[in-house]
Specification:
- This protein is of the alpha/beta class and about 180 residues long.
- It has two domains: about 35 residues; about 130 residues, Glutaredoxin (3-Layer(aba) Sandwich).
- The protein contains four helices and seven strands.
- A seven-stranded mixed sheet has the order 2-1-5-4-3-6-7, with helices on one face.
- The C terminus is likely disordered.
Length: about 180
């Protein structure tokens, strides 16, 4: 009589069960890490988003309010962040899918020493979006404690001149890179 271990269907069933359990465990870790990392971010819902004004990498003034009624993606990054580097291509892909008239996209550089450091990052990753040189005040107002962080502020239905936060995301750092706990300058 054959042993149950020799049955190919039992072996296949065990593999599927193992794969399903591993996938569920990975998903649980992802959810826990994401929840933990976004705990200090701005609340969503009726909270008014902070203003975002600054100077672009090209030296031009920038104000997020100039986006008007268009939805916006605000991407906070640090030039030294390895996860930011890995996700930079996603910004270019999104820009190809949604042009400037459909979606305002702005990358805000934080924790940088010299503008040239940011410029090298932008050139290396061929970013095709507006880059604003942020500082510790911007990081504090937007409650940025990890990189990269994204916010998607949208206009409320009522004709008010403010932005409301619709979504907040901090990319989970499952792969720990150098300097992920740096203090924003």
């Amino acid at each position: 009589m054959k042993d149950a271990k020799d049955n190919p269907q039992d072996t296949r069933s065990r593999r599927y069960r193992s794969l399903l359990l591993n996938g569920a465990a990975l998903l649980a870790v992802f959810i826990v890490v994401t929840t933990y990392q976004s705990r200090n971010m701005l609340a969503t819902g009726d909270e008014v988003a902070p203003e975002l004004r600054g100077t672009t990498l090209e030296g031009e003034p920038y104000d997020l309010e100039d986006a008007g009624s268009r939805p916006a993606l605000v991407y906070f990054f640090a030039p030294w962040c390895k996860i930011c580097a890995a996700s930079a291509d996603n910004l270019n892909r999104l820009r190809r899918w949604r042009n400037e008239s459909e979606l305002e996209m702005v990358a805000v550089a934080l924790d940088w020493s010299e503008a040239e450091e940011v410029r090298a990052y932008v050139q290396r990753h061929e970013l095709d979006i507006t880059v604003v040189l942020g500082d510790s005040n911007v990081a504090r107002q937007w409650q940025i404690y990890a990189f990269p962080s994204y916010y998607v502020p949208t206009r409320p239905v009522v004709a008010r001149m403010d932005r409301r936060l619709a979504l907040k995301v901090t990319v989970p750092f499952l792969l720990v890179g150098r300097g992920l706990t740096r203090t924003v300058r």
